[in-house]
Amino acid sequence: MATYEPKSSKDINFVRRLRDRARYDYDSVNRILDAGQLAHVGFKVPQKNSGAESETEDSEDQYPNVIPMIFGRIGQTIYLHGYISSRLLKALSGPQGDGNGDVPAPKACVTVSIIDGLVVALSSMHNSNNYRSVCCFGKARLVEDHDEKIAALTEIVDKQFLGGKKWADSREINDIEMKTTRVIAIDIETASAKVRTGGPKDDKEDLENPDVAENIWTGVIPVRTVFGKPEPSELNKAKVPDYISSLENKSI
Fold first, then answer.
1. Which pick of 70, 77, 152, 248 has the fewest CB atoms within 10 Å?
2. Domains of the chain, residue spans
């Protein structure tokens, strides 16, 4: 089984808290990536070189950035897309075209989290969530190959429809759209998944105390993201395609 199993506790993907919930195999990581509809992408804006010392310590560029993005996955590569001037996409495009081969590829962290339930305990400090989450780390690169770019865009679009072929069920992308859309690939170097299921884990003394146990409700409140009934636009003239109508009542 392919795995990102860390070699030591110093590895960036090592799960330090509640290690029994950690998963490092490709299948666990990919299942969560494929289920999630939104990723949060962490990156840093490269500093401009100048003869002067750094601008101000409180400069916006000194802070790490985290931006929500839709995404797609092909193999162990995550793809992002957006308008060509996007700050995130420019920052993650790397040294391509700058003539400086010594510039390292930018690093990125991509996280996906899905809440599956509220876990209600006797003690407020034992309340929790059932969840599926993943953290992926890798170096980013600008996608310049035409075929890879089309494959990535197709996956990003179709993923929003749980694999429904929306890319094919659209008018063909034109040259202006292609030129003004930037695609970034993040080849996953390492990753970890973390999953919690089940009910509350209360202290024994609370469970055996009738004043507590008999007066405070405990359990799990399921949380689901569910697709609703498709609502046609005011200008729509077409029938609802099967891949869209079949989404109704499905959950991630």
1. 248
2. 19-46+59-118+129-199
How far is the C-alpha of 64 from the C-alpha of 182, rounded, in Å? 21
pLDDT in tens, the chain (252 residues): 899 999 999 999 999 999 999 999 999 999 999 999 999 999 988 766 655 444 445 555 578 899 999 999 999 999 999 999 999 999 999 876 444 556 688 999 999 999 999 999 999 999 999 999 999 999 999 999 999 999 999 999 999 999 999 999 999 999 999 999 999 999 999 999 999 999 999 999 999 999 999 999 999 999 999 999 999 999 999 999 999 999 999 999
Q: At 243, list the tokens.
A: 């891949």
Which positions ≥6 away from 152 have C-beta within 8 Å? 72, 74, 79, 81, 143, 183, 185
Instruction: Supply the pTM of this predicted model.
Output: 0.89
